[in-house]
Design brief:
The chain is mainly α. Helix content is 79%, strand content 0%. The protein has helices spanning 7-33, 38-63, 68-91, 97-124, 130-157, 161-179, 195-208, 212-239, 245-272, 275-295, 301-330, 336-365, 367-370, 372-386.
Length: 406
Amino acid sequence: MSPSIPVALLLTGVMAQFADKLALDTITLAVTQAGASPRLVGLLVAAQSAAWLLVSLPAGVVADRVAPRLLALLGGLLMIAGSLSGMALLALGETGWWLALSTFVAASGPVVISLSVFVLLPRMVAVSSLPRANGRLELGRAVFSLAAPLMAGWAVARGIGAFGLGLCALLGAIVLVAASRLPRDRPDAAPRQPLHRAIAEGGAFVLRHPYLRPIALCAVAWNVAFFAFLAIVTPYAARVLLLAPETIGLASSVYGGGLIVGAFLGPTLIARLPTGALLVFGPVSSLCGAAMVALAPASLGLPALALAFFLLGFGPILWFIVQTSLRQAVTPKALLGRVSATLTTATFGMRPVGALAGGLAGEWFGLEAAMLLPAAIFALSAVAILASEMPRLRSLPEGEVALPGR
């Protein structure tokens, strides 16, 4: 096994996520500029999110049955097909259901690619090197997450929004080249199960596992809290903290800085600090950030908001790197795809719930009371970890953990 992440796998994972973010930013900006209604913009965002919800579980089953390289190649083809069709539709001024369909197809590519990367990484990298490898993946994603909205804004401002989707198609081609250099190994032969039973096996493994179950609970609660926070924070900052729009934008951009710093320092911190402490730090830092905004006086609104966004980027990305490495270390190879798909579906499914809960709380109870909601749910995500065996973990397990009943 390699001590670091192979370049081909790094390019495959990072370019797919970059294209996913660039496509979403380009499409929402372009149709908004064209005068689309909020309902249409919401439809397009939902189409992009639906790929993660609808494709993850069956793709997870496929990832455990075929060579992950084939799944990555399929993902690259989906990215190219969806992006080119979307580019043509934008150029023709079509911003309706056909654009939503092309968005779904293009987003399905990164979904299957992320699963193939998750399955391949523990086969190509030693367990002790998983945090460093996952850290490099997240650093690349964080950097390009900052670049994507800037590139989309530049293209749309010049009336060439289709250029952004053309670039996504080019990124799909890069993924094809990189994925073609991945190992051709297929999973060990195993009895084929019906699709629903194969999916259920992955979910049952997560629910019974002493580490994966609290990770899932924490991730579900954190995503609800984070999207509730995003739904409330801009009107709260404008109307309660009395910050100007450009000031709010400046504070929000610190989130990207937190992601980059966390991804850059992550491997070093993970090597020096107990695994359990870092798993606790992610949700606790998020709780501190949300509480800081909710309790800050207007005179300290800008520093409180900026620091909150930094903590929401820095702590959770450390948590993500650690828990991803932990999942890869303790999950049997035959279940890697389905376990990843189960957690992906659960967390992405909670995002609209969080956004809706935040918006309704702001409307029904007022912004100041509603701002306490994400802080309370972040607290639940911290409790999910604190109440488990995970705070006592000193390092990543080197093998599978015995499950109850075995």
